[in-house]
Amino acid sequence: RIKNIDAIQVFDSRGNPTLEAFVELENGTTGSAIVPSGASTGQFEAHELRDGDKEKFLGKSVYRAIENVKGEIRVELVGKDVHQQEEMDQLMIELDGTKNKSRLGANAILGVSMAISRALSNAQGKSLFQTLTDGGGTLLPLPEIQIMGGGAHAEGSIDIQDFMIICTGAESYLQCLEMTFNVFHHCGRLLKKKGKLAGVADEGGYWPIFDSNEELFEILLESIEGAGYSLGEDVQLSLDIAASEFYDNGRYHLNLDNRSLTGDQFYKVISGWCKQYPIISIEDPFAETDTLNWKRFTKEFGNKIQIIGDDLFTTDIKRVKEGKEDKLANSVLIKLNQIGTVTETIECIKQTQEFGWTPVISARSGETEDPFISHLAVATNAGQLKVGSFSRSERMVKWNEILRIERELQEKAEFIGEKIFSFAM
Ligand code: PGA
Ligand code: ZN
């Protein structure tokens, strides 16, 4: 049973304040977890409560969320059986009383929810991937790894947020990492040689300086081939357009070439890329409210490209069900803090799988040293994981955790690589 719940303010990979929650059981077992934070957030996401006091951490401190954990949430949950995660998550949702968890803060609720999962796994003396779901999971995810970053994660850089690769030719999880390592380093050398490297973007990928989004494709393709891999077989491209970020008043505003495009014109740009380059997966190709283009795009490409809704679905089972009804996509990005409890996140993953769609478990651009999502990916047999680039410890801790899980699973570990893609509409 839960004896105490506590929280402190710690800092994420951008140095911004975030919340770490602690759950202590009567038998002395504890569990803790740190909440991540996005930059290119969708308008339908659960509410991240920040103090907004300009004198404190430029308004970004989370002391009110911490008070809510130590106050109302603690009072509600002390004495509860740690096995009752679903019941406790539901109690927090009801206690909050708003649609988007804005009263107590999704960061307060999620921190406690994740810490409860940890306390339970610690109490059972098992790893989190074994206790998050009934019976746990055995499927190691196919990684989607960023090579170059832009958008809201590298101001003034490229418009597209993530230029990533998926090693569809890899036969093991480790081989994916090795291939990515080779492409990543090859790309770094190329950018340096061409004088196009500005630094590192928020998720650890290169922050390039280019005049057009298309030049990025050329560099990426050159990096893959230069590293010795065949395009479209060994390695394929994956993009997160994060289009909501540059959509305004019915138009897509591309910074780089100073173009303002109608939905129809932007559709032609995106579909042109999909025909020209070996793109296996594309996320948020259109704004979360531009559903007509989502629908049209899924109809044209949904049987050969994974079309992921991130801002479109915000890990919200209701939005996923509507999206399935309307045939808007064929895949769902899964972020715990978009919805705010572990229970709702797992329900959303299961619903996605029941539809024959693919869930992609994802980190945020503001990440932490907590590898919770690696366990979530394996526990649910989700099959795919996206945590940013192949550098910086807040990213590497997630990739490395899968290696540890693989070691623990021994011969039970499964890897099916690109066979995870279903392209069901
Ligand atoms: P975010 O970016 O965490 O800034 O939202 C990640 C993504 O868009 O997938
Ligand atoms: Zn995204």
- The first-to-last residue Cα distance is 44 Å
Q: How many H/I helical runs?
A: 13
The description of the largest β-sheet is: 8 strands, mixed, barrel
Mean pLDDT: 96
Overall shape: globular
Q: How much helical structure, as a percent, in the residues? A: 25-40%
The tally of beta strands, per DSSP, is 16
> Can you list the strand order of the major beta sheet?
4-5-8-12-13-14-15-16
Category from helices, strands and their pairing = alpha/beta
Into which percentage range does the β-strand content fall?
15-25%
Function: Catalyzes the reversible conversion of 2-phosphoglycerate (2-PG) into phosphoenolpyruvate (PEP). It is essential for the degradation of carbohydrates via glycolysis.
Cofactor: Mg(2+)
Subcellular location: Cytoplasm; Secreted; Cell surface
EC number: 4.2.1.11
Which helices and strands, and how do they pair?
Layout (H helix, E strand, L loop, with lengths): L1 E10 L5 E9 L4 E5 L28 H15 L7 H12 L9 H19 L3 H4 L10 E8 L12 E5 L6 H21 L3 E4 L5 E3 L4 H14 L9 E5 L6 E2 L2 E4 L4 E4 H14 L2 E5 L7 H11 L4 E4 L7 H9 L5 E4 L1 H4 L2 H13 L3 E5 L9 H8 L4 E6 L3 H17 L16
Parallel strand pairs: 4-16, 8-12, 12-13, 13-14, 14-15, 15-16
Antiparallel strand pairs: 1-2, 2-3, 4-5, 5-8, 6-7, 9-10, 10-11
Helix pairs in contact: 1-2, 1-3, 2-3, 5-6, 12-13
Bound molecules: 2-phosphoglycolic acid (PGA) and zinc ion (ZN).
2-phosphoglycolic acid (PGA) binds next to loops.
Keywords: Cytoplasm, Glycolysis, Lyase, Magnesium, Metal-binding, Secreted
Cofactor: Mg(2+)
Enzyme class: lyase
